[in-house]
Amino acid sequence: MNKYLSNTMQRIAVYLYTSITLLLISGCAGGNIITIEDSVVQQHDLIDYDSDGVIKTREKCEGTTIGAAVDNYGCGTKISTIKPFKVDIKFEHNSYEIPRAAYSEISKLAELLAKNPTINVLIEGHSSKVGTVSLNQTLSDNRAQAVALVLENDFTINKNRISSVGYGFEKLAVNGDTEEAHAANRRIIAEISYTDSIDELKWTIYTVDQVN
Known about the structure:
The protein is 35% helix and 17% strand. The protein is of the alpha+beta class. The chain has 2 domains: 1-29; 78-199, CATH 3.30.1330.60. A 4-stranded mixed beta sheet has the order 1-4-2-3. α3 (133-153) links the parallel β2 (121-126) and β3. The protein is rod-shaped and about 135 Å long. It starts with a helix and ends with a helix. The model has no long low-confidence stretch (mean pLDDT 81).
């Protein structure tokens, strides 16, 4: 009995195995064959190189200032702002020779004048309150003229855009009869205001704090 049951179970197992195998084969044979296509080659540059939110393929204004408000092509809006610029150069006692270290300041002034051809500059010469009125008037005139000549000769700024005036010790920066006060008063100054175009920045939650 047990031997008969065992043979029966074996036949059933073989039958089930054969049936399942045939079903799987017939299912695979009747299914659609899926063909894997080659990957698509990206034809456009989708990188945002200047971090303005506009991809390279659409970019028309490269090098956008970080945080600037831009349109769909990465172009921002320029706004005008008034900026002050000041040059303050000190001189040795009884001298109108321009210190070598001061040439970098004069260079910055010359660069600003070159970029803004409608701006003129007035250079004021000053002196300490040591010596006679006549001596210090001449000294302050020479100091202002020395800087004016550097702008004209070394940086090719048109002389018609440069004015100079000496005030002697009429306009002391520091009162007192100390060496520190005298050193502070031996100077030329040039102050101008100019209009600069800057990128309008997009609004952020910190905008109010930045304005204030």
